[in-house]
Specification:
Rossmann fold, UDP-galactose 4-epimerase, domain 1, 7-stranded parallel β-sheet, alpha/beta, 2 domains, 317 residues, 10 helices, two-stranded parallel sheet
Length: 317
């Protein structure tokens, strides 16, 4: 039985990954802080082994990795909300860069054979030109947010520890992923929650939105975590892999799909507080490298993902 340790197990992708790995027969451990909300994993908590540690505390991580001795590690913990990175740039940079360094140092010292998947982000690509679409892994990195900058550093740290210490580290750049349990601060989930609130009568029939003109490459989180596991098993150490659908969808279209799933009459209004100082207009990826290595391809259509997300919020509100 493979021992797997997940940082960020209580988060969106972390909780879905934990569920999937349990189904695959793995022994799943997770790093949690004492104040972490566990809503996302409460339904499988009795099947998990949770360890109290913090990625910003190198000593607690060393103890965790020494105790578990995992075969695989998925480093997903991060401050991952792009808009918040503008409000708290130092916190974002500290959590994501120092946290990743602490994770890799703990692995180097306690279990250097552990195959590690470090989660980068499509936000690393930042400003992309139309002639660069779809984006390949070799594309220049031009991040346009403190979060994007922090993920470039995370990405490069993973490769550095492979080159310098021969740690078997694989780096992923997942493009936008969504689905049930997505945090409400993220656009797709925020739209769905507002619609659910309007249907229940707890919000006026006006939905507040930010920039709707951007194009993003959406994949269901359940397809994303399958790619993570395939890369943990087959990914080449020191390599970077995009995880994406290869199709671009305008944010306005996502909103219209969600609105079309409701019988309520809803007005759309732009909210200045939801706008970023600078935004990435176009992010559509190329995952041919991943497909060629593992045979992975996304299976869940976006329409099904969005319907599941809206129903999730209907059950919550």
């Amino acid at each position: 039985m493979d021992k797997v340790l997940i940082t960020g197990i209580t988060g969106f992708a972390g909780s879905w990954l934990a569920e999937y790995l349990l189904e695959e027969g793995c022994e799943v451990y997770g790093i949690t802080r004492w104040r972490s909300r566990t809503d996302n994993i409460d339904y499988i908590r009795d099947k998990l082994k949770l360890i109290n540690a913090d990625i910003r505390d190198g000593y607690s991580l060393q103890k965790a990795f020494k105790e578990v001795q995992p075969n695989f590690c998925f480093h997903l913990a991060a401050q991952s909300f792009v808009l918040e990175s503008w409000n708290s740039p130092l916190e974002t940079l500290s959590t994501n860069i120092l946290g990743t360094t602490n994770v890799l140092e703990a692995i180097k010292l306690e279990c250097p054979e552990c195959k590690t998947v470090v989660a980068g982000s499509s936000e690393e690509y930042g400003k992309v030109y139309e002639n660069e679409i779809p984006i390949k892994e070799e594309n220049p990195l031009r991040p346009m947010s403190p979060y994007g900058v922090s993920k470039v550093a995370t990405d490069k740290l993973g490769v550095l520890y492979y080159m310098s210490y021969s740690l078997p580290v694989v780096v992923t750049r997942a493009f936008n992923h969504t689905g049930p349990r997505r945090g409400e601060v993220f656009a797709t989930s925020n739209f769905a929650k507002q619609i659910a609130d309007i249907e229940k009568g707890t919000q006026n029939p006006t939905i507040g939105v930010g920039n709707l003109s951007s194009f993003r490459d959406f994949t269901d989180v359940r397809d994303i975590v399958k790619a993570y596991w395939l890369l943990a098993q087959k990914g080449l150490p020191g390599e970077v892999y995009n995880i994406c659908s290869g199709e671009g969808t305008q944010i306005a279209e996502v909103l219209n799909t969600l609105l079309g799933l409701s019988d309520s009459i809803i007005r759309v209004e732009q909210d200045p507080s939801r706008m970023r100082p600078s935004d990435v207009p176009l992010l559509v990826g190329d995952c041919s490298k991943l497909k060629a290595l593992t045979g992975w391809s996304p299976e869940i259509p976006l329409s099904e993902t969005l319907e599941g997300l809206l129903n999730y919020w209907r059950s919550r509100v």
